[in-house]
Amino acid sequence: MSERTIERTAFDENTFDETALNERLREALTAAERRAPSSSAPFERLWSTLAAMTAGGKKLRPRLLLDAYAALGGSDERAAMDAACAVELLHLAFVIHDDVIDRDLTRRGELNITGAFAMDAVMLGASHDDARAWGEASSILAGDLMLTRAHSLLARIDVDAERRHALLDAFEDAVHESAAGEHRDVWLSMHLEPAGPDEVLSMMEQKTAAYSFQAPLVLAAILAGAAPSVIAELTGIARRIGVVYQLRDDVLGLFGDEGRTGKSTMSDLREGKETLLIAYARSAPRWSEVEPLFGDAQLDEAGGERLRQVVRDSGALAIVESVIARRCDEVHRLIAEAEVPVALRERLAAITRACGSRDV
Asked: 3-class SS at 7?
């Protein structure tokens, strides 16, 4: 469930209090750490690493939730802040687990939890395999802690039982759907069966849209007491924005400026990641020439450029760009027709434009 930053301009006009959010995240983690039994120095370091992670990032999901809640007339700032913290902690849990799934040791050019804890073990004399196992165990447990804390925050929000149950159901639905999407993504990356464009798009909806866009908007709407029809409209909009976001992410993953994105344009090719670009490129006559390179963990720059050239020549890049443009138009139409406050329509339109055109 990887993320590159959506342009900050999509949020410039809001009243988002990042300092207050970071403070509440710090409080939530401190309270959770205190509940843990007396622990070892490495476990204490794990908590401090998580605290540092919560202090960073652009906070896309909590921003979206808080904006939507305010636009929909919500007034309980504490409840909204805790819901916003929950979606941020969910994001961190998925990011941490995603790095384990992808066997990554770094994120944004720096050691991730697996890499940092494995390095510690190596420095103390552990074998490479044992150090890697220690690092991955630390990541898995860290993600579990974040996921549990996110659920706890939502369950303790001071609202009536019916609304709390609705919040928890929506959150659980996002977790289940995102897990299903991630599971499907890993399966498709093994290339054991062909993946057509429709299946790739469906996987994107589950993997990215459900928790990154649908969950913040739906949780905000439930918390604000919005009508079921409004929640349904926001769900449809969110899922479509999520697909646009992931389509652009995949284009940047192959053709982006590494200096701006912070991610290698080789990683998706080495991983054998099934994207819409690849789904269309597979139909090109020259694909058979480069197919053995796709998913090769040792792929070099020359091989990567051969693959990218076949994707370009196949017309896949142009097709995906047209899909992005068409889907942006569809989202803007749905936003214009939605029975939601003007401020929220404007914010959703800005986010859609940023998702479709970003280069970072």
From this structure: coil
* Alpha-carbon dihedral angle through residues 337, 339, 344, 346, given to the nearest 10 degrees: 30
Alpha helical stretches, state H, 282-315? 287-290, 301-313
Amino acid in the structure at residue 101: I
Q: How would DSSP label each residue in 234-282? A: HHHHHHHHHHHHHHHHHHHHHHS-HHHH-S-SSHHHHHT---HHHHHHT
Which pair of tokens denotes residue 302?
Answer: 């020359």
Task: Express the helix, strand and coil content of the chain in percent, nearest 5 each.
Answer: 75, 0, 25
Residue whose C-alpha is closest to residue 220's, from 3, 16, 7:
16
Mean pLDDT, each 10-residue run in order, the chain (360 residues) = 44 66 95 83 94 91 96 96 98 96 87 97 97 98 97 96 97 97 94 91 94 97 97 97 96 92 88 95 94 95 97 97 97 97 96 91
| E strand map for 82-236 | 106-107, 110-111
Its pTM surpasses 0.90: yes
Count the Cβ atoms, other than its own, within 10 Å of residue 108: 11
